[in-house]
Design goal:
479 residues, 2 domains, 22 helices
């Protein structure tokens, strides 16, 4: 099987999983948002901050180790499983006993019960870390698709039913628990691997140093990313936090899906080039082009059409997030590109560079938050957007240092797509300026925007477009 077909098959199955998952999650979340209030989502968002950090401790970077390490054994897998499960129980009890302090900090007594119930998901998640990464390692993405999609549909059916029956914030909590329970249960049913419950100190010492660096990086990065959420929930209001997180989720639905598709598909593929940097950079540049072709028009259209999107999907009660959505779409536009750059470091085992890179961004992010926070959420997002662009430049400088792929060359690879995207954005804004119907603004804006962007790419970037479409054609027509 050729490299192109192998890469395209990896992307295709991951795309089926993530795109179908995100489409379903998007629709079901819209239904929940039309029933529940911004405050309900704000309450859950405060908990997710701590759940996400605890989840990083559970995986401890060892999940990626399953993908990256070529000679993984059953004893290694069992050691990782037992360690993950033990840490998940420890994390649960830490959150259980600190729940009153968290509730006091946010001045929301109901958070005590919410945290203690929702934190059970940490233990459930720990049971599925090894199975899901084994499926990824062996390119069995269809099993992940089955588990994720089934869990999503069934759990949201329960959550929407409870929301209609006035369970309010508890409908979201129960939905989350049901999702993890169903999806992890299906992973166990579909997986041939079962833990032997043998723990090897030698195996742990072999893999944990690599995972520990990713653990530090993950905790640091996740904590830093959630500083703004903590400040908004504490010093503004829980409702404002609901607005902010809901607008971020709308942007991240396509954004993180593409990032997940690329990282899951490229990790085993890039690993084949661990000792061939020239081949690795060749494949990397192809993925840069694919990312720009998808991400730039998508994010710029969300920004340009934010008002009709919110009015039509979430109703007038969510109108306050329109200004936030406009800026957040720009804020996230380079996120997948930065993730691919970091992925290069992971596949060659240089997680230490990953850690150093994230640590170097600390003054930048904190400075942006401290300077802009007193002036409101919009100022905060604008500052974070500027910081994200600077962070991306730092990422590509490290790529240059390690792989000798010059940062100016990477910018040159991206610039044509960005220029076309900016002209598309301005054209869409002008085209809908005289249209009063929100529905027609959306239809006309999307139609004109996509036609202009991809039509221009076909004229000026024909080679990249041909490579992109031919790769998926090969998957469809060649076994």
């Amino acid at each position: 099987m050729s490299l192109k077909i192998s890469a395209s098959k990896n992307i295709l199955w991951t795309a089926i999983d993530r795109i179908s998952y995100q489409i379903l999650a998007f629709i079901l979340n819209i239904i929940l948002a039309r029933i529940l209030s911004p405050r309900d989502f704000g309450l859950v968002s405060t908990i997710i901050i701590f759940i996400t950090i605890a989840q990083i401790f559970i995986q401890s970077g060892l999940g990626i180790r399953i993908l990256q390490y070529q000679n993984i054994t059953n004893l290694d897998l069992s050691t990782i499983f037992i360690f993950n499960l033990a840490v998940s129980i420890l994390m649960y009890f830490i959150l259980y006993f600190t729940a009153p302090l968290i509730a006091q900090f946010f001045r929301e007594p109901i958070l005590i019960k919410l945290i203690r119930i929702l934190s059970i998901s940490l233990i459930i998640m720990a049971f599925g870390v090894v199975q899901s990464n084994l499926f990824n390692r062996n390119f069995n993405y269809k099993y992940i698709f089955i588990a994720n999609t089934s869990g999503l549909v069934l759990s949201y059916t329960i959550g929407i039913y409870l929301a209609y029956h006035d369970f309010k914030v508890w409908s979201i909590v129960i939905q989350n628990l049901c999702y993890y329970g169903i999806s992890v249960g299906l992973l166990w049913l579909l997986s041939h691997w079962k833990p032997s419950f043998k723990f090897s100190i030698v195996s742990f010492k072999t893999h944990f140093p690599y995972g520990f660096k990713l653990l530090l990086t993950g905790v640091y990065a996740t904590s830093l990313n959630n500083v703004s959420n903590v400040l908004i929930g504490r010093f503004y209001s829980i409702t404002q936090l609901g607005y902010y997180t809901r607008s971020l989720q709308l942007v991240d639905a396509p954004n993180l899906s593409l990032t997940t598709i690329l990282t899951q598909a490229t990790t085993p593929l890039f690993s084949k080039f661990q000792n061939n940097y020239e081949g690795l950079i060749y494949v990397f540049r192809k993925f840069i082009g694919i990312t720009c072709l998808i991400m730039f028009p998508m994010m710029l259209l969300i920004s340009a059409l934010s008002k009709p999107i919110i009015i039509l999907l979430l109703t007038e009660k969510w109108i306050s997030i329109v200004p936030l959505l406009k800026v957040l779409a720009i804020y996230r536009i380079l996120y997948p590109l930065g993730a691919i750059n970091i992925q290069l470091l992971n596949v060659i085992g240089r997680s230490d560079w990953f850690l150093y890179l994230d640590l170097s961004k600390l003054p930048l992010i904190l400075g942006a938050i401290l300077i802009s926070f007193p002036y409101g959420i919009q100022s905060l997002i604008l500052s974070l957007t500027l910081a994200s662009f600077i962070s991306y430049f730092m990422n590509i400088l490290v790529t240059y240092k390690v792989f000798k792929y010059h940062f100016l060359q990477q910018l040159k690879d991206i610039l044509p797509y960005l220029i076309i995207g900016i002209f598309m954005y301005l054209l869409v804004i002008f085209s809908i300026s005289t249209i009063k119907s929100y529905l027609w603004q959306l239809i006309v804006g999307i139609g004109i925007g996509l036609f202009f962007f991809y039509g221009t790419c076909l004229v000026f970037l024909r080679k990249d477009m041909r490579y992109f479409f031919k790769g998926f054609k090969d998957v469809v027509f060649k076994k």
